[in-house]
Design a protein that fits this description.
Radius of gyration: 20 Å
Structural class: alpha+beta
Order of helices and strands: EHHEEEHHHEE
Strand content: 5-15%
Shape: elongated
Helix content: 55-70%
Number of helices: 5
Number of domains: 1
Bound molecules: zinc ion
Length: 198
């Protein structure tokens, strides 16, 4: 259940400010890097990048197409990721999302509704699940020389979803009645349960 205004008995149990909370930002960045390397390095042994880039007798035009599409994918997935958050906010929160960019990260927020645990978890994880589901089959369907195109974009999105996973992990540990409002760069958690400050 989602609310337009905070129910009376609820009080703020936690604020997560993605810009001011340095510990959170550091943990997310380190984890994102570890995840990215864990995805790229083993794949690099399996299909070395040189098999995809330049050394396999590919024509100049094909080569340009590969790198061009990689660039489009590497930038485009950020937009796709936030648009999926936005669509989930529209669908599950029944409200308009707001989009923004802080200079460090892009976000889609739900500033006008207090959203409960399950819908919020779906909103948070939707881009990770949907983009992975779209690109993973492509990695195996495209010719070997094109593997790195969908794989790199998928890996970047998984790595970029580490913050979303962190938020869901926090949600799972929050009281059952938790309500979340997302003010863009800061999230606030509310609950009516007393004595469970987290
Ligand atoms: Zn996200």
């Amino acid at each position: 259940m989602n609310y337009d205004t905070l129910p009376e008995s609820f009080w703020r149990i936690r604020t997560l400010d993605m810009q001011k909370d340095k510990k959170w930002a550091a943990a997310v960045n380190v984890a994102a890097l570890v995840v990215l390397l864990a995805l790229l390095i083993p794949a690099g042994f399996w299909i070395p990048l040189r098999e995809c880039a330049g050394f396999d007798g590919r024509s100049f035009g094909e080569e340009m197409l590969f790198w061009g599409l990689l660039l489009v994918g590497a930038v485009g997935y950020i937009f796709a990721h936030e648009l999926i958050h936005g669509a989930a906010i529209r669908l599950l929160g029944r409200t308009k999302p707001t989009f923004g960019f802080t200079g460090l990260f892009a976000y889609a927020a739900c500033q006008t509704k207090y959203i409960s645990k399950k819908p919020y978890a779906v909103i948070a994880l939707a881009p990770l699940v949907l983009i992975t589901a779209a690109l993973l089959p492509l990695c195996f369907l495209v010719p070997r020389g094109w593997f790195w195109l969908p794989y790199f974009v998928m890996a970047a999105n998984i790595s970029g979803s580490v913050g979303d996973i962190g938020v869901v992990w926090m949600l799972l540990r929050a009281p059952r009645d938790v309500l979340v409002i997302d003010r863009g760069t800061a999230m606030e958690f509310y609950s009516a349960e007393k004595g469970r400050r987290r």
